[in-house]
Amino acid sequence: MIYISPAYEKLWNRSCESLYNDPDSWIDSVIKEDREKVTADNKKIRSNDFSDGNTLQYRIVRSDRTVRWILSRSFPIRDGKGEVYRIAGISSDITELKLLEEDLYNAKITAEAANKAKSIFLANMSHELRTPLNSILGFSQVLEMEPDDLTEDQLEYLGYIKTSGYHLLEMVNDILDLSKIEAGKFEIEKKPFSLGSMLSRLPLTIKSLASKKKIKLELNISPEVDLVTADEVRIKQVLYNLLSNAVKFTGSGKRIGIDACVKDCTAIIEVWDEGIGIREEDRDRVFEPFVQVGGAESGKPEGTGLGLAISRRLVNAHGGYISVKANNGPGSRFTVMLPGATFSMMNQTINEDPEPKLEKTETGRRGNILVVEDNELNQRVITSILEPAGYRVHTEQFGKDGAKAGREGGFDLILMDIQLPDMSGVDAMKEIKGVSGIETPVIALTAYAMKGDEKKFLAEGFDGYISKPIDVNNILKTIERFLKK
Prior knowledge:
Blueprint: H1 7-12, H2 16-21, H3 32-46, E1 55-61, E2 67-78, E3 84-93, H4 95-144, H5 152-182, E4 191-194, H6 195-201, H7 207-212, E5 216-221, E6 225-230, H8 232-248, E7 255-263, E8 266-273, H9 307-317, E9 321-326, E10 332-339, E11 341-343, E12 367-372, H10 376-386, E13 391-396, H11 399-408, E14 413-416, H12 425-433, E15 442-446, H13 453-460, E16 464-467, H14 472-484
Parallel strand pairs: 5-7, 12-13, 12-14, 14-15, 15-16
Antiparallel strand pairs: 1-2, 2-3, 4-6, 6-11, 7-8, 8-10, 9-10
């Protein structure tokens, strides 16, 4: 031992003299858990093995019983021939750094636990709200498709129930979307699709809302608007939000419209209205979450204040841009710019999808369906949809009973809820599919409707997926598609 820095005494709280007398005495201060690796490293250094750079972190217990973290670096000093003739080392106190690292790690664990708890809460909230909404919207659709059995007032009240139900569903979806976007868990699935075709059909989604207020909708789509590479579902969500807002904030008998063109391979879509307008000082704020602003005419704010915040984030995720300015006259003009557009001449026609009709057919003619669903109201909703459409329906409330019925066969298709009282619908499905010779399609019919749930359940082995609340047209088309196979 040639030289020991006086700083050793401050760091180790031991005398330099003790180290001169016993060069290995410093190891006695190393805590038991770290001593083995320190001893092994010391042996490597003495054998002139510096292959690993010989940097080591360990803890010591000083004579005052305090624990300190040490960072030691050892390096060789060589002569002119390259032979090692001396070894030098530097040790530093890194206790504060390690404490900071520990605090950061604990904060990370706490944040991850909080995010996990938040995700579980949102999933449960979505499930619990969608379950009663399934009954509200399901029965509304069934009654609406048999208008001859209802009075004019009853039809009007039914419309209010259905509209309120979908409004609540929209709020649930908005909260979930914003939470996922802010958590960085929102995925955009970009694929080429016909933007022109979407824009042509978009007015159909707000037709009933606009007709009630006698609002005229004008569509001006340049013929070159065609393919754009984007997430079709999310772009439709953005444009529907803008269009429904235009209806909401525009007075009776006025106009709203959509203008669209392509410039420099960027699709430019403008949604305008002759409504109450937005004050200039509020035009950036309207894109912030939960912000509601009055119009230029001090109109009362409506909605949750989430739609435009979500829209901006979705457009930004596509590398695009959304803004708002005053319309040429009263009202507002929202502009969405989407990169990745191509040119093509196309016919802009609006073809209305016929409203789904619940045509009564002799029960059992179309097939036998097993419904495994623990909620009695949801059982009645599904039965009320399927039996008039010609299906014979058998219901089971528990997973074990549903699995038993499915294994015994005799069904053309099985609709399986996921959250059952006694077992998971996933396990019940696997019990059915585990029986040799049974190839009955099993479709997940569930209130678990968050992003990725469909992919997850299909990966588990389900043949199809239908989310709640049930859409009558969707469930009938899905069943028909499987029974045709």
